[in-house]
Design goal:
Distance between the termini of chain A: 43 Å
Structural class of chain B: alpha/beta
Radius of gyration of chain B: 23 Å
Oligomer: heterodimer
Helix content of chain B: 25-40%
Structural class of chain A: alpha+beta
Order of helices and strands of chain B: HEHEHEHEEH
Number of helices of chain A: 17
Largest interface: A-B, 48 and 38 residues
Largest sheet of chain B: 5 strands, mixed
Number of strands of chain B: 5
Distance between the termini of chain B: 67 Å
Shape of chain A: globular
Radius of gyration of chain A: 26 Å
Largest sheet of chain A: 6 strands, antiparallel
Number of helices of chain B: 5
Number of strands of chain A: 10
Chain lengths: 624, 163
């Protein structure tokens, strides 16, 4: 009964979305109020539908096909609930729930004072909802039942049974979908023709929320890969990882161009274009994950009909916005000449560099497809390409990020910035000297640039400064810190692979380790081979690590649980491989890594997210 | 009444989007087989590795320091006992380590080459060890496997005639 109610709510929601878009875009005198009410109704109906699906998972209702395929009674409750969005159909419903929630934010937000703009934005947001609800209903309906009710479900991929993964996709979707509101407000501004400082102020909270959620989603995914997958890395340039980086880069550029629009009333067309592109990149990401065009660890089940449907949505919405842009943008022309050395010029340069990085990543992601399509070559693009292309663009960007915030708006202040910059440069060079023991030139330059950015950010700190400056200082400092972490882990990683017999000792990165053998342990829904690896000093063992290989009988699959010893400067990371029965029955393959500076990476990510939170608080306050 | 003026620059995003959509649509209609990025050697004759190789044979690149090589080692031994011919290339390893490795674990190789400098590996374009190539009776490379064999039938199937 609950499932039918949820299913019916979804159909009603489709009607509400149609109503919202029709009355949002026509000129009926009652349209304003009808579009707002429809947006709220849509949100409520999708909330009912989503709750119904979660209910089916909580109660393990195996008459629902989606629950059979993705759940099991033996699963812990948290993962039963998370299972509701751990699959294509359920995650699509979550996507729509967020789309509808942002629609009702637009409907009730007090910061939108322009009624026509609100109405048109609701109309566009309604169109987005219509497309995605139709997609979900016709190709990926999670509410389909079966008469053949099985005893139990077919479980969830055990790799996904991790708290990090219960929260990684929803956070990421909040980011992806959050940019839909920015997209709708941009398209609405093209329709009404009013793009000004007030528009920038009003859009910023939406952009800040979406950006911070996307940043947090990417960081959570990266942490999950590092701690749970046992691959010993945090970023793989996997196409789907790139798909989340693309809207992040565009969104970062957007936040900065909004600053110029807000302060100077300039860059109108560029900002609008970025707002559209950012959401297009979100749609592209959704398409890449769900179409099976690119092979990836992240891909959902492949169904060509779904791929074509999402591609059609991607094309219609983006093309519609770009046509609107080509038509209306000329009327938004602002002829403002910027002084070459000024805050606004540095932000323009920041935007150009960020967009260059975006195009580079996009090219790398699509290049194998292009080559293969024209039968030129089969290849895959990996870390060497990205390291070679992005580092030379990122270094000037970091240097610029250190300088830009010291520059005043409009004109250059008479050399006032020079002293602080010299200080920053001196301190950064001094700190870099600490690292010259390595012979890796690019790494040193990267470190110097990151240190420069951190020092310059700290020097921007002033007593009693406002939230705006806090988010600048913390965000830029955090990025510098994260880059130190990235460079540190890639340059000074130490790896050891061996077949270990009980009692074997070995040294790695200043640690002395002893393999003490493997025993079987039982978990709630798995059995595991668990190794004891002792850390030794002159007095004997002082700590024991327990890397595991878990076996999930229900889904007939196994996972690797790395054992990690965290310290401030480096992580000791031990992974238990397979049994090496050929040489002796107690011999196991053991992989050990030393990852330096990983804590800097996570701290940097956390600071970037914190900067987003501060920006959200401040921009909401200012816009109200 | 709004004047209809379409700027040339304004249409660039639209053109880029259309090109992207056409590409993606084409890919959807013609999906690629996963993991099919292949060695450029496939379909060509094996480069001169300084050793006599007569097919059909598996060229197996391995090393004593390579843990996954030990995973596939027993499968190679069984395959050899069932008639599969295997050429071993000991990649970047000392001769005494290799001899010790093979006397401990058994020797599945009909021909063994010591590639202490890694030159043979470079000529083959290997991406890591273990890596295996199937060379047919005409000396043409037919297949490549990156990483270890997973079972005995995998090894035996590997030398069956390729399409």
């Amino acid at each position: 009964m609950i499932i039918e109610l949820a299913h019916f709510s979804m159909i009603l929601a489709l009607l509400a979305a149609i109503l919202q878009s029709v009355y949002g875009l026509n000129n009926n005198s009652l349209g304003d109020i009808i579009a707002q009410r429809a947006a709220l109704a849509l949100n409520t109906l999708i909330m009912i539908a989503f709750s119904g699906l979660v209910f089916a998972y909580v109660t393990s209702d195996f008459s629902v096909i989606n629950v059979i395929l993705n759940s099991h009674t033996d699963k812990p409750m948290l993962y039963k609930i998370a299972g509701a969005w751990g699959n294509h159909e359920g995650s699509m419903l979550l996507w729509i729930l967020m789309l509808a929630s942002f629609g009702s934010f637009i409907a009730v937000s007090p910061q939108i004072k322009d009624h026509l703009l609100r109405r048109r934005a609701l109309g566009i947001q309604g169109l987005l909802s219509v497309g995605f609800i139709a997609f979900s209903f016709f190709t990926s309906n999670p509410f389909l039942r079966t008469n053949m009710v099985p005893e139990n479900g077919q479980s969830l991929n055990p790799v996904l049974q991790d708290p990090g993964l219960a929260f990684h996709p929803p956070t990421l979707y909040l980011g992806y979908v959050g940019f839909s509101a920015v997209f709708s407000l941009a398209a609405a501004a093209l329709l009404t023709g009013r793009v000004d400082t007030a528009w920038a102020k009003m859009v910023k909270p939406f952009a800040a929320l979406a950006w911070l959620a996307l940043s947090a989603g990417i960081a959570l995914g990266s942490r999950w890969a590092y701690y749970e997958l046992g691959w010993g890395g945090f970023w793989y340039w996997d196409p789907v990882e790139n798909a989340s980086l693309l809207p992040w880069l565009a969104g970062t550029a957007l936040l900065h161009s909004l600053l110029v629009l807000e302060a100077r009333g300039a860059l109108k067309r560029w900002t609008i274009l970025l707002a559209v592109i950012t959401f297009c990149m979100s749609l592209l990401g959704t398409f890449l994950v769900r179409s099976g065009v690119l092979t990836s660890v992240h891909a959902f089940a492949v169904d060509p009909a779904r791929g074509i449907f999402i591609l059609a949505l991607l094309f219609i919405y983006s093309a519609g916005a770009f046509i609107l842009y080509a038509w209306r943008a000329p009327s938004l022309k602002t002829l403002r000449l910027f002084t070459p050395i000024s805050r606004e010029s540095s932000l323009v340069a920041n935007n150009l560099l960020l967009i260059t990085i975006l195009v580079t990543v996009l090219t790398g992601t699509l290049y194998p497809l292009i080559m293969d399509t024209f039968h030129l070559q089969q290849l895959s693009v990996g870390a060497p390409y990205y390291n070679a292309t992005i580092v030379p663009i990122a270094i000037p960007l970091l240097l610029l990020m250190g300088i830009g915030p010291f520059l005043p708006w409009k004109r250059v202040g008479r050399f006032t910035f020079k002293k602080s910059l010299l200080q920053a440069a001196a301190i950064a060079i001094g700190l870099t000297l600490l690292f010259v023991f390595t012979d890796h030139m690019t790494g040193i330059i990267g470190l110097a640039a990151a240190l420069w950015l951190m020092v310059a950010s700290v020097l921007q700190w002033r007593p009693h400064m406002g939230l705006k400056n806090w988010s600048l200082v913390i965000g830029h400092f955090g990025l510098g810190l994260a880059i130190i972490g990235m460079i540190g882990t890639s340059l000074w990683k130490v790896e050891d692979i061996r077949v270990a017999n009980p009692g074997d000792r070995f040294e790695i990165g200043g640690y002395s380790l002893r393999f003490d053998g493997v025993k079987q342990v039982e978990g709630p829904n798995y059995t595991a081979a668990q190794a004891d690896v002792s850390l030794l000093n002159s007095a004997g063992p002082y700590d024991v690590l327990h890397p595991q290989r878990r076996w999930y009988p229900v889904s007939n699959s196994d996972t690797t649980e790395a054992a990690i010893r965290l310290t401030f400067l480096k992580d000791l990371y031990v992974v238990l491989g397979t049994q090496d029965a050929q040489s002796s029955k107690d011999a196991w393959v053991l992989r050990t890594w030393i990852h330096p500076f990983v804590s800097a990476l996570w701290a940097g990510f956390a600071m970037i997210v914190l900067a987003g939170i501060l920006m959200l608080i401040r921009s909401t306050r200012e816009a109200a | 009444m709004t004047q209809l003026r379409i700027s040339l620059w304004g249409t660039i995003p639209l053109i880029a989007l259309t090109a992207l959509a056409v590409l993606l649509l084409f890919r959807l209609e013609n999906p690629r087989v996963p993991g099919s990025v292949d060695s450029p050697l496939i379909g060509k004759s094996l480069p001169d590795l300084g050793i006599a190789i007569k097919g059909p044979v598996i060229v197996n690149v391995f090393a004593s320091w390579c843990a996954p090589c030990k995973v596939e080692h027993p499968f190679l031994l069984v395959a050899k006992s069932r008639g599969t011919r295997i050429v071993g290339i000991a990649y970047k390893d000392k001769k005494e380590n290799i001899d010790h490795y093979l006397s401990n674990l058994g020797n599945p190789y009909d021909v063994l080459a010591y590639d202490e400098t890694g030159m043979i590996g470079i000529n083959l374009g290997i991406s890591g060890v273990p890596e295996s190539y199937f060379v047919d009776s005409d000396g043409i490379v037919r297949r490549r496997l990156q990483g270890p064999f997973a079972s005995v039938p995998d090894v035996i199937e590997f030398v069956k005639d390729a399409p």
